[in-house]
Amino acid sequence: MGRILGLDFGKKRVGLAVSDPLKITAQPFYVWSGSKPAECIRYLCTVVADHDIESIVIGYPFTLKNEISQSARNVDRFIAMLASEVSIPIIKWDERLTSVAAHRIMHALGEKPSRKKEKVDLLAAMLILENYLDYLRNQSARTGESTI
Prior knowledge:
Blueprint: E1 3-9, E2 13-19, E3 26-33, H1 37-50, E4 53-60, H2 70-83, E5 90-94, H3 98-108, H4 117-143
Helix pairs in contact: 3-4
């Protein structure tokens, strides 16, 4: 039983979240900081190998008009580089408003998102992964199949 890795990709940081082996919950994992995608990909390859990752879900930044943004093109380039290094599925997942939700969570906790950007990235990665896990559960409920 492998895990799913969730990514919130950004130019300066990449938030990571990981599922439990049963694919029920998403936990914040790590924030990779740096401007060199190749170094991030090397790190992700290590995470994939060390944590029995069977697939990666990466937030895909559509605009509110459902168009592909410049940020989405950056994610596409990153996915292409990552796909050449790992042999597991990489799923694009609509991440619209996950950063907004992460900011709201931070405010509810009495924290200032502007001062804890890494925490926002962790929460965003966790929300992306949680949304995907919810989708998998709903799909399996419709078909009567187990996601395990």
